[in-house]
Structure formats: C-alpha cells, structure tokens
Amino acid sequence: MGMWLKRALFALLLLACLYGVGQLLEDNVIEYVVRIVLFCGINSILAVGLNLINGTTGQFSIGHAGFMAVGAYTTAFTAIHLENAWFPGLAGHLPFGDVALVFTLSLLLGALLSGLSGLVVGVPSLRLRGDYLAIVTLGFGEILRLLFNNASFLGGATGYSGQRSLGLPIYTNFFWVFSWAVLVITLLGNLTHSSYGRALRAIRDDEIAAEACGIPTTRFKVLAFVISAATAGVAGGLFAHLQSTIRPDDFKFDRSIDMIVMIIVGGLGSVTGAIVGAVFVGITLELTRDLQQYRLVIYALLLILLMVFRPEGLLGRRELHVVRLFKRLARGGHAA
Question: Which of 18, 26, 214, 264 is a good FRET partner for 178, with 20 to 30 A between their CA atoms?
C-alpha cells in the first residue's frame, strides 16, 4: 500500500510541476517557441510508439500517419459533439474540469479507434515480412487519408473545423502534451524492458528461433502494432486540438517518413533515442523553415552526415537513464 501511495503522490507532484511549467512558458515565452516545444512533445509520443514496432519488434511499418489521422479526426469529432451535448452554452469556453473530462474522453476514444485500425491492418499483414509488410502499411495509410479526403461530414479535402467559425477548440497545451508524453513513455519504456519486450526483441533478432522457443510471434507482433497505433492516435488527437482545422494533407506519406527518421536518428530499439530523434527532427525542420526551397536539401544533408558518421543513430540501442545522468553530473561537480 505504501508503494502505491508513494507512486500516486509522485504522479500528483509531477502533474502539478507540468502545469506550473506550462503556465510559466505561456506567460514568459513567445507563442512560436511554445508551439515548437509542443510539436516536439507530440513527435516524442509518435516516435516512442513507432519504435515499439519498428525498433523493438523489427517490423517495418511506413503507414503510421494513417493511424494518426484516425486519432485526430475521432478526437476532434468527439470533442465537438460532447461540447454541444453536455455544455451547449459554454462551447469553446469550458472551465478547466470540464475541458479535462471532454478532452480525456475524446483522446481515449481516438486511441481506441486507432488501436482497432491497427488490429484490422495487423492481423492479415503481420504474417508478412520485410518489404511486403511495408507496402501493405503504406497502402493502408493512403486508404485512410483518401477516405477522410472524401468524407463530406468531416469537411473533405477542405478540412474539418467542426463547423465553427473559430475552428476547433484549442485544448492542447504544455500540460496536456507532456502529461500524455510522460504516460506513454513510461508505459512503453516499462513494456520494452519487460519479459514481453524481451520476446519482441527475440522476434526482431530471429523470428524462426523465437517460434521454436514457443513465442506466438504473430500474436505478439499484432499486439505491438495495436499499441503503437493507439499511441499514434493520442498524438493525432493532441495535434488536432493544436490546430484550428485538420486536413487530410496533414497526414500524407511524408508524415510517416518523418516518424521513421525520428527513430532512425535516435537509434532503433532505444526509447530515449526515439525521444532524442523526435526533438532533433522537430527543431531542425523549424530552424530551416525560413530557408524555403533549400530547407529540405539542408535537412537531407544533415541526415546523410548523421548516417555516415553515426549509422546506428545518436544512441544506438542504448538508453539514456536520467537518474544516472544526474548522479554523474553531481559527481563531476563535486570533483570539480
């Protein structure tokens, strides 16, 4: 009981710290910088989720933007209708507690439908391997984008704003993004280093040997794929309520490529490496935005240089342990 009480108190303290830091950022930092920080947090959720299937399990999915789209549209659609049903006079001006209820339910439903989408594509396709799996996931992601592009009740190609003059309600802020980021990173980090994670790494290293050892490889791969898709749905929901309008073009093939770049840059199989890669990609793309036509050229050159001098990624398969890092810094400062 004491252990659970300590964990609950720690979680409450962490949430309070995140809320306080968010307020400080919003009051003292320009909005552009805050948006970059929020995008880095959303990227971290995407990268850590994709790392579970591409890095830990060794499968090759390149259609995760489709699951992000499912989460984005589901969350936005649900939040708008919950607002109208529960608080018709307060739509867009909900107090904090009501926002928490509406947004949490919407995000959970977005994650659920994204996970179910992952199950639909995972059951038939994860019996395939290598390039065949990549082609199936790419096709599924494009099918989802085209479905949203032709869904008139979701705005079609012009985008979905809930038929509101001011667009979607802006719920997403530092507190929401990094609360979900901490939750996703903690859960998937523990999962990766559990006995289940060891089974996934066995599938990555030698699937035939894993089957010979009694590991139900297809079931484990499908479960990893569903969890990865659900986290992409959460990130999509947070992304949707950071924008005034979401469009099918927000979830094109290049969005999936950006996710893959994040985990390759950080190091395939490393949870903290995925976070480092997400921050690297987010900041690099923003810093080069003013260079216009040279932006993607510089971005590509940086990636080429990284692959030449650090082909295994910035962290490889190693993990960056925050507690150990602080202890080393403390020892270094004491010695100095």
Answer: 264
Phi/psi at 247 (5° precision): -125, 155
Place of tokens 């295994």: 312
User: Contact 51/271 with Cβ under 8 angstroms?
Assistant: yes
pLDDT in tens, 2-47: 677 777 887 888 888 888 888 888 888 888 888 899 999 999 999 9
What pairs with residue 7 in β-bridges? none
Cα–Cα distance measured from residue 44 to residue 157, given in angstroms and rounded to the nearest whole number: 28
User: What residue ranges define each of the domains in the chain, with the CATH number in brackets?
Assistant: 34-335 (1.10.3470)
pTM of the model: 0.88
CB of 248 closer than 8 Å to CB of 157: yes
d(CA 155, CA 126): 33
Rounded to whole angstroms, the Cα distance separating 10 from 242 reads 28
d(CA 242, CA 86) in angstroms, rounded, equals 22
236 with 42: CB under 8 angstroms?
no
How many Å apart are CA 232 and CA 226, to the nearest integer? 10
Q: Is the dihedral of CA 82, 83, 87, 88 positive or negative?
A: negative
Tokens at residue 139, please? 């096709």
Element (H, E) at 236: helix 217-240
Q: Among 202, 194, 261, which residue's Cα sits nearest to residue 227?
A: 194
3-state secondary structure of 336: coil
User: What would the pLDDT profile of 87-123 be if each residue is shown by its tens digit?
Assistant: 555 544 555 556 788 888 999 999 999 999 999 888 8
Residue 321 identity: H
Judged by phi (left if over 0) then psi (alpha if -120 to 50, else beta), residue 61 lies in: beta
Mean pLDDT for 39-67 is: 90
Residue written as token pair 């290598």: 130
How far is it, in rounded angstroms, from Cα 275 to Cα 265?
Answer: 10
- Mean pLDDT computed over 61-84: 88
- For the stretch 148-174, pLDDT in tens is 888 888 888 888 887 766 778 888 889
Tokens 């990555």 belong to which residue? 204
